[in-house]
Amino acid sequence: MNKYVLSAILSAGLASPALAGQGHCAGSDQSQIGQLIARFKAAIIAHDQQGLEALFVPDGGSWFEVLGEDAFDRFQARKPDHAALHAGGQLHLLRESLQRLVGRLDPAQFIRIHRSAIVRLDRVAEMQALFNRDHLLRLRDGTVLRASRTYVDVLRAALLANGAP
Fold it and tell me: Could you tell me the superkingdom of the organism this chain comes from (predicted)?
């Protein structure tokens, strides 16, 4: 079994490390593990074929799936190799770096605006220049984010290509 899938199963609390190592689980645990593995495999195959289709995010003692890039508003770095996904007004913490996420997201829909932030282009409502070539972005939900000068030129070109401000 893939070590990442096993890690997700263990952190989801569906099996104890001792049981997972021995391959012995209660019937309902084994069924839940099988279902979770099938969902992970489907998401991995979908990603390999078409890009990021879904993310599995921890929710208490289990995992749930956030489907489709349409649900993703923005990502922000929290600490090394962790990001916060803002989707549908909810916040989900991910064990994945922004660098890895930006490589998995559709570049026509998502863009890095700062070393600590990625936004969905159609969520940008307004872009305002600051004195130091940085910009402030106001998203449609009212959130204000800083776009650093390193990313501003690419951001502006992407917004113009999408017909946004």
Answer: Bacteria
